[in-house]
Amino acid sequence: MEIRCAHEWRPVAGGKARTLLSVLMIHAGTPVPVARLVEELWRGAPPASARSLVRGYVLALRRSLGAEGPEILTAQADAYLLDVAREAVDAYRFEQLAADGQGALRTGDVDRAVRLLGAALTLWRGPAFSGVAASPLISAYVSRLEELRLAALEARLESDLLAGRAEEVLGEVRQLMQEHPARERIIALWMRALHAQGRRAEALSAYVDARRRLAGEFGIEPGPYLRQAHRDILAEDGAADAAGTPTADRTPPARPREVPWHAPASIGDFTGRHAELAGCLKILEQEPGAVMQLVAISGRAGVGKTTLAIHTSHLLHDTYPDGRLYADLRGDSAVPAPADEVLGRFLRALGVQGSEMPETTDERAALLRSRLAGRKMLILLDNASSEQQVRPLLPGTGPSAAVVVSRRRLSALDGSHFVDLDVFSPECALSLLGRIAGVERVMAEPDAASTLAALCGHLPLAVRIAAARVSASPETSLSWLVQQLMDERSRLDELSIGDLDVRTTIAAGYQGLSAAEQRALRRLSLLDVADFPAWVVAAVADLTAAETRQVLRTLVDRRLLDETRVDQVGQLRYGFHSLVKLFARELAQQRPAAAQLAAIDRALEGWLALARAAGAALASGTLAQIGPPRAVAAPPGGVEVAARSPSAWFEAERAAIAAAVAQAADLGRTDLSWGLAAAAHSFYELRDLFDDGQHVHETALRACRAAGDQLGEAVMLRNLADLYSSKPGSELGQKLAFASAALHLFRQVRDTRGEADALYLCATVHRMRGEHAETVARLEQSLQACRSADYRLGELHVWQLLGMVRRQEGHNDEALVHASRALTIARELASSRDQSVALTLIGIIHRDQDEPEQAERALVEAIDIAEESADPVQLAFLHGHLGALYAGSGHPRARPILERGLELSRASRSVFGQALALNALGRLDLAEGDAAAALDRLCASAQLYREAQNSYAEAKALAVLSEAYRQVGDAERARANAGAAVLLFRRLGNETEADQMELLAGGLSGG
Question: For 323-340, what is the HEC assignment?
C-alpha cells in the first residue's frame, strides 16, 4: 500500500495504520464512525486505549499524506473522513475502467474494450490488500474486488476472442478453468476459443462435460452463457460447412443482363478466417428488415480484407439476387475517389442515363437509395478512406446490404458488424503455403516452411507471394527461398511476383501521410526495440505532445503502427509489423546518416535518463551509481512515471533496454551502451535476473574494450562480479577475476567509490571460499576507501559482510555490533532491502544465541519491510529463517511458513532459499519421527548449499544430517557427515563449532 504525495510514492508503515487507511479508502468521501474503526482494527477485542490508539494512527497517516494531510483526513463528530476523489484510489479507477471496457464490448467496440480492460487489469499487482490484516469489511470488499477482477478478465478474454486472438488466450482460459471449474462464462470462453482454432469436436465435448458436471454436482442445467456458446458453434459450423461446399445450390442461377454483377472474381485457395467468415455470413444472411445490414472489415495492408469481402459476397448469390455493386474507393491514394463519381457509376449500372443523372452528391445519394428500395442487392466498397466517404454510398434501409473494406476501423459507421483482421496464425500461414506450393513440399521441409512463414510476418499477401515463387520453380527448395529472405536488406525485393508486391502495398498507405507522420514512421523504424511508448515517438521525430498524439492516431489508424499492449506502468506501447518496419527503414536509410544517428541518440538518451531516475528510486542500491559524464535530457513527464514505480518501469522497458544497449554498442555510442546497462544493474540484481543482466553487461563490456573506455569497462566488470556473486552455480574464480580486473581499472581512473565496491566484491568471493583472513583484509581496505569518499552505501555493505563473517567464526557479539551499524546506515539511506538484510542478520544472531523473542522481533520487522517493498527474493530467505526459528521451538506456524519460503524460493530460482527451507523442514520431520522424509530433505539441503558455495551453511546442514543418520541407526554415515562438518568449520576459522562437532563425532565412534 502506497500514498502518492508531493510527486513521490510513500509506503504506509505499520499494520494498524494500513488497516485504518484501507477502511477509510473503502468509504472514501464518507465519514466512518470511530466505533466502526475500532471494530475493524481489533475485530471485537479492542484494548482499553483503542480510541487513543486510533487517534495516533490517524496522526501518523496525516504525516504520511504530507502537508495536506489534515485537510485530506479530517475528523467529523465521532468519525473520520478520507476526503479524496474516488478516482484517486486505484481500486475505483479499476472499477471505472472495467465498467467502460465491458460497456464497449456490449456495443461491439472490441478494440476499445481490449484497451480499457487491459488497462484495468494492469492496475492489479497481486491480491487486493496484500499486507493488510483481514477484517470483516476488508474481507468482504476483497471478495467483491476479486469478483470484479474475474468479470473484467472474462470480458477481456472475450474481447480478445472477438479480435481474432484465440490462439493467444487458450492457455490463459485453460488456467482459469482449473482455478474456477464451475464458472460457466469461462467454460463458454474455452469452447469459443477451441472452436476458433478449428477444434470443433473438443469445443462441443467441453459443453457435454460441463453439462454432465453441473447436473451431477449441482442438479442444474447449463446457464445462458454455455447454452448460447453451444448454439453459436453449431450455427457457425453449419454456415462454415455450407460456405466451404461447392454444391449446386450455391451456384448463381442465370440472371437478366440488366442485373449488375460488379464483384471481382473470388480466389480458389481461400484459407482460414473461419470465424470471421461465419460472422459476416450470420449478419448478411439475416432476414431483411427495416435496418440495413452493414459489415465493416478493417486491417493492415496485405492482411486479406478484400479477399474476405469478395469471398463472402460470392457465398451470398441467393441471398442478394438483385446483383452486386463494387467500387475501389482509392482510400490509400492522395486523392480518394469522390462520392459523386462512385454514385454516378452505381446509378448508371442501375439504369440511370443521360439527363436523368442528378448533379449534386446529395441528389445522387437519394436516387441510389430510391433505386435500391425493395431490392436485395449487396454493395462492396473497397479501400475506403473514411466514414464520410462511405455514407453517401450506402443503401438507406434493408433488404440491400453493404460490405465496407478499409485499413482504418470505421468506428463511426453506426450499426456495423466490425471485423478486424490480423495476420494469420502460424498454422493458417502454413496451410496457405501448402495450398499454393503443394502440401508435399511443405511436409518435406517443415522447419523451412515454418521459418518462411515467419519471415513473411505471417502476412497473407507475403505468404501468397512466397508460395507462388516456390510453386513457379518446382526445382527450388523452400530452404533456398528462406536464405534469400534472411537478408533484411533485400527481403522486400524477394516478396514480389507479377503484380503482387508487398512494398507497393505498404507504400500506398505511406504516400497518404503528412510529412510529420512520414518522418516519425521512418525514424522509429531505425530503433531495434520491439515496442516503445509515446515519448519515444516525440523524441525521434521532434514533436510536441499534442503532435505526437495526432501522429500516433493516424499511424495506428492506417495500420502502419500497432498498439501492442499497455505496459506495467500504464503506458500504451506501439510496435511495427516486421515488413512495415523493413519498408520504413529502407526509406530512413536514404536520408543523411547524421540525421538518422541523431534520432537514434535522442531515443537512447531518453531511455538512459529514465533508467537513471528509476534506478535512483529503487528500494535499494547495490553499488555506487557510476555513469558516463554525458548529460542527457529526460522526456517530459517520464521521470515522474519511472520514479513512481521503478521496478514496474524497468519490467516494462526490460526488453527495450537490452535492445538499446546492443544498438548503442553497434553504433559506437559506447557511453550510452554502458551507461544504460549500469543504470539497470540494481534492477537486475534485486530481481535476480542474472541472465538478463549478464547479457546486457557483456554486450556493453565488449563495446568499452573496443573503444578503450576504461571507466565503462571498470563499471561493467564490477557489475558482472556483483551479478556473478548471486548467480547460482557460477564459478568463484570468474567472479574474482571480474572484481580484481575492475579494481585495477578503478585505481587507474582514480574512482574511489568504484575501488571500494571492487574490494568488497573480492571479499565476497573470499568469504564464500572460507578464506576469512583475506576477506577481512579486503573489507578493511574497502572501508578505508568508503570513508575517504564519504561513500555510506559502500560502508553499509562492508559492515553487513563483516557481521556475516564474524558470525560464521562464532563471534556473535562482534557480529551483532557490525549488523547494528549496517542497520543504522541503511535507515539513514532509507534503503529498504539493506534494512531487511541487516535485520535478518540480527535475527539470526539472536537465534544462534538462544534469544528467540529478539530473533522473532527482528525477523518479523524484516518481513514487513520486504513485503512493503515487494522484494520476493528477500521474502523467500526471511520465511526460511523465521520458519527455522519456529521449528526450533516447535511453533505450530513453522511448517506453513517454511513451505511458503520454499515456494517463494523456487519461484525466484534461489538455491540458497530452497536449501534454507528444506533444511528446516527436514529438522521438523525429524522431530516428528518421519526419518525417511527428514533424510531426503536434509540431503537435498546440504547439496544445494554446496551448489550455492556457502560453506558455513553447508557445515551446519551436515551437522544436522549427521544427527539424522544417528537417529536412524546409520552410525557410519553419521560419522562421515560429522567429520565433513568439522573440516568445513575449521576451514572457516570457527573452532568453537568445530570442537563441538568433533566431540559428537567422537561419541559416534565410541558408540
Answer: CEEEEECCCCCCCCCCHH
The whole-angstrom separation of Cα 370 and Cα 374 is 9
Burial 387-419 (b: 16+ CB within 10 A, else e): bebbebbbbeebbbbbbbbbbbbbbebeebbbb
The string of pLDDT tens digits covering residues 604-653 is: 999 999 999 999 988 777 799 999 988 888 998 889 999 988 989 999 99
pLDDT computed for residue 824 by the predictor: 96
Distances from the Cα of 707 to the Cα of 666, 675, 712, 746, angstroms: 11, 14, 10, 17
Please count the helices (runs of H) and the strands (runs of E) in the chain.
Answer: 47, 15
Q: For residue 932, give the nearest of 956, 968, 899 by alpha carbon.
A: 968
Here the cell at position 511 is 504516400
**What confidence category does residue 854 fall into, taking pLDDT thresholds of 50, 70 and 90?**
very high
- Which residues fall within 8 angstroms of residue 894, CB to CB, at 6 or more apart? 883, 886, 887, 920, 924
The b-or-e profile of 514-548 (16+ CB within 10 A means b, else e) is eebbbbbbbbbbbbbbebbbbbbbbbbbebeeebb
419-452 pLDDT, tens digit per residue, is: 999 999 999 999 999 989 888 889 889 999 999 9
Strands 73-76 and 79-82: antiparallel
Residue 461 Cα distances to 273, 304, 364, 572, 610, angstroms: 14, 7, 36, 28, 40
446: cis peptide before it, omega within 30°?
A: no
Q: What is the DSSP letter of 154?
A: H
pLDDT in tens, 802-833: 999 999 888 999 999 999 999 999 999 988 88
Mean pLDDT of 103-127: 84
Decide if 470 contacts 499 (C-beta within 8 A).
Answer: no
The confidence score (pLDDT) of residue 698 equals 96
pTM of the model: 0.66
Residue 1004 binned pLDDT confidence (cut-offs 50, 70, 90): low
| pLDDT confidence band for 245 (50 / 70 / 90) | very low
Name the grid cell of 718. Answer: 564490477
Residue 544 three-state SS:
coil
DSSP state, residue 250: G
Phi/psi of residue 406, each to 5°?
A: -155, 150
Residue pair 769/731 in contact (Cβ under 8 Å)? The answer is: no
Q: Are 152 and 114 in contact (CB under 8 A)?
A: no
Contact present, 915 and 944 (Cβ < 8 Å): yes
Q: What is the DSSP letter of 307?
A: H
pLDDT at residue 725, as a whole number: 58
- Compute φ and ψ for 726, nearest 5 degrees: -110, -20
964 pLDDT above the threshold of 60: yes
**pLDDT one-digit tens code per residue, 448-479:** 999 999 999 999 999 999 999 988 888 888 99
Amino acid of residue 196: A
Q: How far apart are CA 191 and CA 172, in angstroms?
A: 13
Beta bridge pairs of residue 327: 381
The set of cell numbers assigned to 334 is 492522395
382 SS3 class: strand
User: Which residue, chain included where needed, has cell 470465424?
Assistant: 275
Residue 327 cell numbers, joined: 467500387
HSE-CB of 248 using CA atoms within 13 angstroms = 0
Residues 129-148, buried b or exposed e (16+ Cβ, 10 A)?
bebbeebebbeebbeebeeb
**Pairwise CA distance, residues 562 & 574, whole Å:** 5
Q: DSSP letter at 7?
A: T
Q: Closest Cα to residue 698, out of 730, 669, 733, 673?
A: 673
As given in the structure block, the three cell numbers for residue 611 are 533508467
Alpha-carbon gap, residue 586 to 484, rounded angstroms: 17
pLDDT at 717: 97
- Residue 524 near residue 536, CB atoms below 8 Å: yes
Q: Are 400 and 379 in contact (CB under 8 A)?
A: yes
